[in-house]
Amino acid sequence: MTSPAKPRFRSQDWFADPERSDMVALYLERFMNYGITPAELRSGRPIIGIAQTGSDLSPCNRIHLDLAKRVRDGIRDAGGIAMEFPVHPIFENCRRPTAALDRNLAYLGLVEILYGYPIDAVVLTTGCDKTTPSGIMAASTVDIPAIVLSGGPMLDGWHEGELVGSGTVIWRSRRKLAAGEIDEEEFLQRACDSAPSAGHCNTMGTASTMNAVAEALGLSLTGCAAIPAPYRERGQMAYETGRRIVEMAYEDLRPSHVLTRESFLNAIRVVSALGGSSNAQPHVMAMARHAGVELHPSDWTDHGYDLPLLLDMQPAGRYLGEKFHRAGGVPAILWELLQAGKLSGECLTVTGRSLAENLAGREARDRDVIRAFDTPLREKAGFLVLSGNLFDFGIMKTSVISQEFRARYLSTPGAEGIFEGRAIVFEGGEDYHHRINDPTLEIDENCILVMRGAGPIGWPGSAEVVNMQPPDALIQRGVQWLPTLGDGRQSGTSDSPSILNISPESAAGGGLAWLRTGDTLRIDVNSGRCDALVDEAEIARRRQEAPPEVPASNTPWEELFREKTGQMATGAVLEMAVKYRGISRKSPRHNH
Fold it and tell me: Going by DSSP bridges, is the β-strand pair 121-126/146-150 parallel, antiparallel, or unpaired?
């Protein structure tokens, strides 16, 4: 029996082209200056890129500076050649005006690297929110074998014997500060105590959500997403990931073989069962569009609403990342959905096996943390898509609707699930912070806080500013939340029930542009409607008025981003980019 033919990798177009020895010499020459040999590069072994997202500017991903060593070990042991390179940094907490600008920018840079350099396959290192979608988007555009290695969450945070989760503790402490229960020093200390080690958010914020999405899509090794960054298993996972990507290179197992409509629907279902971030919506849509997979905004309701909350983890629950990992992590959630017939188990994954095969024996080990499908924390706890005369698309994360909020706003006898309130409109985050405690606004329990000017064009980038808390006076009276909506986002670590990602945004001519403080809004979660109760003639008159002012761009990229980026409903992608797919199949032109 003859062995299968050894594949010829695209890197050989650089290092072993018999028709252009002059170019081969040029490509080889400068690699010699750090000690690699011509024999290695000309051996026909796959060159594996390590897309390094770790840096001092990206503390959530900084663990990858160490993990890359274990990835290299795995690549070398499996017969590959590792080449590590930097990726544009993304850091949600610190990047101003918003890190949402960087997802598409990192995507562009990574596409150019993977296409224009002699790379046969790639390890995508992920962690902070947007590093996961930007890497997967680029891998789909280029379509070389790719695998996701997440850096993992921080260890659990503790403050005076209380679990304090990253991000979530800030939003909760902000309310305590407003109520006069803590002072500013205590506020800062609670926040600092939530970050005790290397890793990304230890809550089910956007970072944990998106790395779970990568695993649900089949792009990570089983169990990768939830391992805390400092655990020994994280280094072991890095090694196995390095080994596996070499095998994938030989198998030519590309993202286009893994990413299907069913795999994306699996991802939506998993986000719901986890109580995951509302930021997953534009990221999942963006990844699907770059993969050429048809996904609709309504899929979030059709496939992700009527599902139970299975994970008891902040912000929708009590626990943090370490307990989630020890309970079984993402595979245990997937296992529950599979047993309940809510998951497409036949989807191919980077292991070379189906999702169902990967999940054999992965039942949860701690039923206090991961509930059985038929005994969940909450029923129908997924994502609800809304529309109305103000917008075509908005999304609401229902797993964070507390019993208190439901009793106050969604339990009127004879009108359950319906709330009418007076709109209080803010022109961006600065306006909100300046005026939220203004007594002349007369904000009470029957008001709805509205944030506009916070979308992809208006901010620009879309900002996490919709999770607005009530005025201090209301908080001191025990009102912890008001209904909120806006054309921006909110932190995935927030426990605020909000209607988010509204499209079209006010800066693109959406209905929030004509909404006025004092208008009555009617929200009906039963029908998925949100309407301003304003006469059609008055709406037409307001549309003739000058729209809200949009701040000027401050950088060339902000201007380009505004020009090329679409709305949140469809992923806020660079619209001209989605037509580029599978570009690695054509070798780029020589450079001399």
Answer: parallel
